[in-house]
Amino acid sequence: xxxxxxxxxxxxxxxxxxxxxxxxxxxxxxxxxxxxxxxxxxxxx
Length: 45
Description:
Protein name: Homoprotocatechuate degradation operon regulator HpaR
Organism: Pseudomonas brassicae
Strand content: under 5%
Mean pLDDT: 94
Number of strands: 0
Number of helices: 2
Helix content: over 70%
Order of helices and strands: HH
Structural class: mainly alpha
Distance between the termini: 41 Å
């Protein structure tokens, strides 16, 4: 129960943060950022 409540609390915080970023950054720019971050994951050291 305690672990499940912690997960729910964290999920709500993450959703609020996502919405705040979306409002300030805009959908198009956020998608561009996520695409660039995905590409960055593939960079070999």
